Amino acid sequence: MTAVRRGRPRIIDQRRPGETPREEILDAAAELFTAYGYTATSTRAIADAVGIRQSSIYHHFQTKDDILDNLLVRTVDASARLAQRLSDYPSSPASRLYVMVWYDSHQLLAGRWNLGALFQLPEIRGTKFPHFESRREYLRECYRTLARQTCADSNLWKNKHKIEMTVVTELPFHFVETSIQIRADSPEWVAEAGPGAIATGIADSCLRALTAGCTAALKVKAHRIRDQLALDMAG
């Protein structure tokens, strides 16, 4: 990541949300990358969308890859921090997993742009974005751990084959990522139903898959955790 430097004066008045030119650049890049793809989006197009000179972008980011890396990390960083806070939280694995799935899904559904769609870009495959990959893998392993612990507390998965258990422990992460496709396929419905309601449906479905039920008591515990951690889960 590069230090913020003072750029040249902008061409027009600010027309992007953000307290700094760096934030405006990220907002414009997010819109263009999700709409047209990474390769098809030039730094000139990003600069035009912000209303600055193309050269000014390089006062804030070394390369276009640097811009994408910043956006990718934003898709997982808040959820990874929450996972760390929940790792030794005094509550059942199932209730902690519910909070994780809810919060992560809500993050992906409620953002200004569908940044989760950037996961699917062919350009991110490989080792070009190690910080993003390490944070995403950390988050994924947290889901696996909570899923294993949740299944251990449930009679549903006792004496199951190792392959079945491997599949089951991967489910929560993939339940969360369905929110990306839901948002891409049905933006009007997401706007109408609201990210909170859809995230609730995803979390409920995930716990039903792992425990054959998502009880009212479990949801009460999950909401208590939310309140105690002061998570913004409204909407």
Automatic annotation (TrEMBL):
Gene3D superfamilies: Tetracycline Repressor, domain 2 (1.10.357.10). Residues 1-20 are annotated as: Disordered. Residues 10-20 have a biased composition (Basic and acidic residues). One of its GO terms (molecular function) is DNA-binding transcription factor activity. InterPro entries: Homeodomain-like_sf (IPR009057), HTH-type_TetR-like_transc_reg (IPR050109), HTH_TetR (IPR001647). The keyword Transcription applies. This is HTH tetR-type domain-containing protein. It comes from Mycobacterium arosiense ATCC BAA-1401 = DSM 45069.
